């Protein structure tokens, strides 16, 4: 299937994807779409010539091709069999490709019949809505999920807390973050809690939390370190910035 993509279309798709991911100016979209060959070359020269970033370009093109191929296959599967599993799989892929509005539509379509109150689907809908910056909807979904055991310490609950903050309810946001602040787990949520403490300017509390997290990381074994490597990296960076300075 990949063979059907011409090099120019792949290059154009990559440039559009890169422009979107990096919030490029509107003029670049016109360059890339109206003058695909020349426009792509100018865009790449502007963004990569002085960056010595050929590997990034290659990986970016590969990512675009693989992502598009996966979504096409999932769309075909849904056309062949319109069921909740296929809709959910496609919605998940849309989220991974930053197509949050499309994902939200599918998640909502899944919340019918015996699945109308499914916690896992509702959490996915909340997460997609948060990524789409629809904070009021996130709060609506989060309030309905608060009593769900699956949501109590879910990573997506951090998005619910941030949505409270973004809509002016800082006290509720802090309460939600504190409810996930449990030792030796919830590292992603606790890293978000630290960012929240930065946002509300509580440096003393922040330093205590970062010190606690850093001490926990020191006791982590190999398998744990591998599993939480992204969270560890983020926590270490926060610790380096706000404890050592």
Automatic annotation (TrEMBL):
Q: Which SUPFAM superfamilies match?
A: TPR-like
Which of UniProt's keywords are assigned here? Membrane, Transmembrane, Transmembrane helix
UniProt KW Transmembrane keyword:
yes
The record's section on InterPro entries has: TPR-like_helical_dom_sf (IPR011990)
What stretches pass through the bilayer? 28-45
Q: What is this protein called?
A: Cardiolipin synthase N-terminal domain-containing protein
Which organism was this protein described from? Ohtaekwangia koreensis
């Amino acid at each position: 299937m990949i063979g059907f993509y011409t090099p120019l279309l792949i290059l154009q798709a990559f440039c559009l994807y890169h422009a979107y991911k990096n919030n490029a100016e509107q003029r670049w979209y016109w360059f890339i779409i109206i003058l695909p060959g020349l426009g792509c070359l100018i865009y790449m020269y502007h963004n990569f010539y002085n960056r010595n970033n050929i590997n990034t370009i290659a990986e970016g093109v590969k990512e675009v091709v693989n992502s598009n191929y996966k979504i096409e296959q999932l769309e075909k599967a849904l056309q062949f069999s319109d069921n909740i599993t296929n809709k959910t799989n496609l919605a998940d892929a849309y989220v991974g490709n930053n197509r949050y509005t499309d994902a939200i539509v599918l998640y909502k379509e899944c919340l019918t019949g015996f699945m109308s109150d499914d916690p896992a689907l509702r959490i996915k809908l909340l997460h997609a809505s948060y990524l789409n910056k629809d904070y009021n909807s996130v709060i609506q979904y989060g309030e309905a999920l608060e009593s769900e055991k699956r949501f109590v310490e879910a990573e997506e609950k951090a998005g619910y807390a941030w949505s409270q903050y973004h809509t002016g309810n800082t006290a509720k946001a802090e309460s939600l973050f504190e409810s996930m602040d449990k030792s030796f787990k919830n590292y992603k949520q606790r890293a978000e809690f630290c960012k929240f403490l930065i946002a509300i300017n509580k440096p003393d509390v922040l330093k205590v939390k970062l010190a606690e997290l850093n001490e926990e990381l020191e006791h982590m074994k190999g398998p744990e370190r591998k599993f939480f490597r992204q969270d560890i990296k983020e926590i270490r960076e926060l610790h380096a910035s706000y404890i050592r300075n």
